[in-house]
From TrEMBL:
Catalyzes the NADPH-dependent reduction of N-acetyl-5-glutamyl phosphate to yield N-acetyl-L-glutamate 5-semialdehyde. The gene is argC. Pfam families: Semialdhyde_dh, Semialdhyde_dhC_1. The active site is at C127. It comes from the Bacteria. It is found in: Cytoplasm. This is N-acetyl-gamma-glutamyl-phosphate reductase. It catalyses: N-acetyl-L-glutamate 5-semialdehyde + phosphate + NADP(+) = N-acetyl-L-glutamyl 5-phosphate + NADPH + H(+). Pathway: Amino-acid biosynthesis; L-arginine biosynthesis; N(2)-acetyl-L-ornithine from L-glutamate: step 3/4. Its EC number is 1.2.1.38.
Amino acid sequence: MKSVGIIGGGGYVAGELLRLLVHHPGVELAFVRSKSQAGKPVYATHADLLGETDLRFSADAGHADVLFLCTGHGRSATWMKENKPSADTLVVDLSTDHRMSEDWVYGLPEVNRARTRDAKRVANPGCFATAIQLGLLPLVKAGLADGEVHINGMTGSTGAGQHPTATTHFSWRNNNVSIYKAFTHQHLHEIGRTVTQLGRPTTDGLNFLPHRGPFARGIFVSTYVKTEATQEELDRIFREFYVDAAFTHVTEKNPDLKQVVNTNKGVVHVEKHGDKALVVSMIDNLLKGASGQAVQNMNLALGLEEWAGLGLKASYF
């Protein structure tokens, strides 16, 4: 039984992670660090854990075989430098800090499962990056996405974190839609790295329009490229790409977001329209886009069953 610690335990992602780890058959929680919540019961912040655990937040980090970094972007790298965890400690960073580092495995199991096994440093992909890549990478590997790629994506309000802002509080977000960071979203960097590794000649031409959606959780992405491939060829490409995937499923039916909310699934659908291939891909941003994928990566790195602890139950959100 491996011991697990969480650094930065007060936010949405940490709450989802705790919900998964409390009942995980292969690990036990050693500590949850949160300076702002130190001394309080975990369920005082994450209300859905009432009756699930009596663990309290701690001000300091203790010993653990596995560390999950749920700190804000920029703070994970600082924490690593200041605390220097052992090289034998498995560290899974859910922030953006190490996603471009050659010293960390980029933890997208659909392409890096083999590298993640026995890894000690894993950078969890971003939520939008995960949803986009699940739809795009089969095309890239087949050489069908070397030109212009057009991507539209919509994310729920939990993707912006727990602290309310002008564009996340209920009265603004409800019944409302807006575009942000057009063509400049930070997840394009990690997407670009993966697509070039799979053979795309350049990172140019990845056109991404992110949208804020009027819902709490989930990411819905539509991607299209010009191609001469037939529907039959596209179906074969996607099914072969995901033949061994534990959580990503290809469907022939046009899917909807509720199929993935509160699950660690990725759902992908491809269809041909004239000279274009349209791909719909979707995930839950807090699970497959964050905590669920982090547990999936931990399972791979520890040699556990990939789906261990990911038989999910309803979340508070």
